[in-house]
Every structure is written in C-alpha cells, then in structure tokens.
Amino acid sequence: MSAGDVLLFSRKITPAAFKADPFGTVMCALIHLTTRSRYNHAALDIGDGLMVEATSKGVAVNPIRSSDEITRVRGDGKRVTCVAFTPPCANAYEGNDLEEVLAWGAGRVGNRYGYVTAFFCGLRNLFPGWSVVQDRAFICSQLVAEATERAGHDYGKGSEKVSPGDLAEHFGVPRR
Fold first, then answer.
1. Fewer CB within a 10 Å sphere, N or C end of the chain?
2. What is the dihedral of CA 139, 140, 146, 150, to 10 degrees?
3. Could you tell me where the DSSP H helices lie in the chain?
C-alpha cells in the first residue's frame, strides 16, 4: 500500500448488504447503474492505512476498510491493479507531485458532500451536457480527480463529471 494510490471500491449488492445498510446499498446500486461501472466509490490513500474520501458526511480522513473489494491504481498513469491489498502497489510520482496531491486532498477535509453534483453526475449518461458544480462540496470521484490533476492527470472533462468508472478507465482498469 502506498500513499497516492487511487482506491476504487466495488460493493457487492446482496440481500444481506441491503438488510445491513438499505440506504447505502441502494445508493451503490444506483451508482453502478447510472455510471455503467462496477465501481461505486473512490478515495485517495494518504498513507499509514488512511484514506481521504468524500462521503455523505463530507470529506474526511478514515481508515482504509477492507470489507469491500478495493482496486488500487498508481498515481503515475501506469497500469497497476491490486485487489484487496495484495500485492502492494508502489507509487511513481515525479518531483513534488505526490506531496501536492496528498496536501490538496487532505486540505479538503471538512468540506461538505456534493449531493447536487452527485445527482447530475448520475444523470450525465442520460443528459450529457448537464452538470452542476457546488462550491466547496465534493463527490468521491471529483475529489480524487481534482487531487490527481495536481500530478498532471487530465480527464478530458470537468472533475464534477468524473465517476469512479471514469477514474478506472483513465488508469487503464476496466470499468466493469
């Protein structure tokens, strides 16, 4: 595990998952459906077993959880996929890129979640031109996209339109 890795989460949609967390399971299913991707969440590994992520509670630093399947991709654009932490991925950022990415991501802690942005991100497959940017509010994939843009990654669209599946494709990992 390396600081700077992009973490892509793929939560299984099962009756047991629904019983344990109905709202979260429905939201994951909607993300899978509207973004046409197996990934429903994205975060940035900031080292020491911690990640910065945007959740319904806002942007926060949390321990990296292993209950979902996690795909790790390197921040340098080279294709490296690690599932469930095995094997560890080595980062290959250049110069101060890693420090800038981590500082920018951690600097967003305390910002609110972008519910409106999430809604329009889901609708973009139906209405490609629609988007809304909320000031100082983030969805998970937008947070990761904006952080990694500091290392020169270009997603070809506004970060508010980037989904976890788009991050996967950008780093050479199949979306499904």
1. C
2. 160
3. 15-20, 22-35, 97-106, 115-123, 140-149, 164-170
Give the total residue count for the chain.
Answer: 176
Please answer whether residues 82 and 88 qualify as being in contact, where contact means their C-beta atoms are separated by less than 8 angstroms.
yes
Amino acid at 165: G
| This prediction's pTM | 0.82
What are the φ and ψ backbone dihedral angles of 41, each rounded to 5 degrees? Answer: -155, 150
Residues linked to residue 43 through DSSP beta bridges, in sequence order? 7
Q: Give the chain's largest Cα–Cα span.
A: 47
pLDDT in tens, 86-123: 223 434 577 788 899 999 999 999 999 988 877 777 66
Q: Dihedral, CA atoms, 119, 130, 154, 35, nearest 10 degrees?
A: 50
